[in-house]
């Protein structure tokens, strides 16, 4: 097997309110809103993308905000925790920042690393960890200096109903290397500069239920369209049902569900988020794919307005 993913391309989750979502991921965590668009399969719902200065693969978390969506339950068959990497020596800064905004967190230890574990406003589990590898983000917002800003994904924790099968898929299908085990987890590494560490919880939890506060899918990187087609053939040869290629405007996507119940995507690195707006103004207006432009007025009427804003400190 010669194909090896570089790691996480993006992670997509459900939330309820677009403004609260922007307040947490931009206002508190300091990520850049790099694209404001719609769910191409349900145009009455936003699809919001947050990442580093240009939304590089390995930094992108995306959301479907739906005010009428049901509350989800985190469990097996999904990503249980989304991990963000911050520069070495930055956890003290983030402890102070979370305290200032009254964001509860705990300190946890896993496979030789220390994490700040917290939840967003919908209950999605998030953690921060110091990592040396990966370039610094060039994006600064809300009083977060670039030397402490989130660089991108540190990785993710997978909650599988069948951890052994999920491990087999990571190693023998996606090309991850098994590098460590301990504290109830098995750890795997890909070759990318960030989004490259994935942990599997070894004891299965009860099945999760999709809804706000849960991850819908995790996407892995393909370097281009040609490699994605190689991935499609290879994943199918491993016995998985793979969807046809889906045009997501900013990348192309294929999907398959692995035997631990988690929905996997393989997404292309190009073309990226500057394909339809200037890189200096990413995320500032609603962008629609060409096939939805004739319906812009109706679509905008159905979407509640929100803004990216600095958040007032609650505690000194």
From TrEMBL:
Q: What is this protein called?
A: Lactoylglutathione lyase
Q: Tell me the Pfam families matching this sequence.
A: Glyoxalase
Q: Does the keyword Lyase apply?
A: yes
Origin organism is Paenibacillus sabinae T27
Q: Which CDD domains match?
A: PcpA_C_like (cd08347)
What lineage is this protein's organism placed in? Bacteria, Bacillati, Bacillota, Bacilli, Bacillales
One example of the protein's molecular function in GO is:
lyase activity
Matching SUPFAM superfamilies: Glyoxalase/Bleomycin resistance protein/Dihydroxybiphenyl dioxygenase
Q: Does the keyword rRNA processing apply?
A: no
């Amino acid at each position: 097997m010669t194909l090896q993913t570089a790691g996480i391309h993006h992670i997509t989750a459900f939330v309820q309110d677009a403004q609260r979502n922007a307040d947490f991921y931009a206002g508190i965590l300091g990520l850049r809103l790099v694209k404001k668009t719609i769910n191409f399969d349900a145009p009455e719902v936003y699809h919001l993308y947050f990442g580093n200065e240009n939304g590089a693969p390995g930094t992108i978390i995306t959301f479907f905000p739906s005010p009428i969506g049901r509350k989800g339950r985190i469990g097996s068959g999904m990503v249980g925790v989304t991990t963000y990497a911050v520069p070495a020596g930055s956890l003290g800064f983030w402890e102070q920042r979370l305290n200032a905004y009254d964001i509860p967190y705990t300190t946890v230890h896993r496979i030789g690393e220390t994490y700040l574990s917290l939840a967003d406003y919908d209950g999605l589990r998030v953690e921060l960890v110091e990592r040396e590898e990966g370039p610094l983000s060039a994006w600064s917002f809300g009083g977060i200096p670039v030397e402490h800003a989130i660089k991108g994904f540190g990785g993710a924790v997978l909650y599988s109903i069948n951890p052994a099968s999920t491990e087999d898929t990571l190693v023998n299908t996606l090309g991850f290397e098994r590098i460590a085990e301990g504290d109830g987890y098995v750890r795997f590494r890909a070759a990318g500069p960030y989004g490259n560490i994935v942990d599997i919880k070894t004891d299965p939890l009860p099945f999760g239920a999709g809804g706000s506060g849960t991850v819908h899918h995790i996407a892995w990187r393909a370097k281009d369209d040609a490699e994605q087609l190689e991935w499609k053939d290879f994943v199918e040869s491993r016995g998985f049902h793979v969807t046809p290629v889906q045009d997501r405007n900013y990348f192309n996507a294929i999907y398959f569900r692995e035997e631990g119940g988690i929905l996997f995507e393989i997404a292309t690195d190009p073309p990226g988020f500057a394909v339809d707006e200037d890189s200096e103004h990413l995320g500032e207006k609603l962008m629609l794919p060409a096939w939805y432009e004739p319906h812009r007025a109706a679509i905008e009427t159905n979407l509640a307005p929100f803004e990216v804003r600095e958040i007032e400190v609650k505690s000194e």
